Prior knowledge:
Blueprint: H1 6-14, H2 18-40, H3 43-60, H4 70-91, E1 97-100, E2 109-112, H5 128-139, H6 143-154, H7 159-166, H8 170-195
Antiparallel strand pairs: 1-2
Helix pairs in contact: 1-2, 2-3, 2-4, 3-4, 4-7, 5-8, 6-8, 7-8
Amino acid sequence: MNDLPDLDLVDLAQAGDNAAFEVLVRRYSGRVHAIGLSMMREDAAARDITQEAFLSAWRKLHTFRQQASFRAWLFRIATNACLMKMRYHRRRPEVPLTIRGPGFSDDGEHERPVVDWSPLADKLMEDHELGNRIRSTIAELPDKYRMVIVLADYQHLSMREIGDALDLSISNVKTRLHRARLAVREELSDYLAGRA
């Protein structure tokens, strides 16, 4: 069953074969987790996104139409889960973590902001410092640009698959990707000029 194409597995899963859906989960859980990690920048949130995406896919599997790629459909579900979680977090900003105990300050408290330095993706970079700068720059992009560049350059989706995942036309995907890459290039231009 592991070597069946996605659409055959979907047919079996739609007919009630749980094992077929489990194969799809194993096949795509790493990629969905990487999308969650690149968008949420936190491993725990990425694990939540992975679980939410597969639960949602299971519940909505009867709505999947064979004209689309299962991978793009699943990535759209994962992307939407990320967007919903990011909207929720914007409404509920993080508060500093207060640590109580001796040696922190006169009043026994010390505030540390909760910061996650998770990598944007598990892709290895030849130059560690440049890789960190690229990831940091992409992480600072507005959501609509960050999502497109992550799906294109880290998940290697086609323009059509990105359009399907984000409900955008191919021309809008290309425009956003171009703008995202220009913003990254502009942000890194001084650093790269110093290396030449």
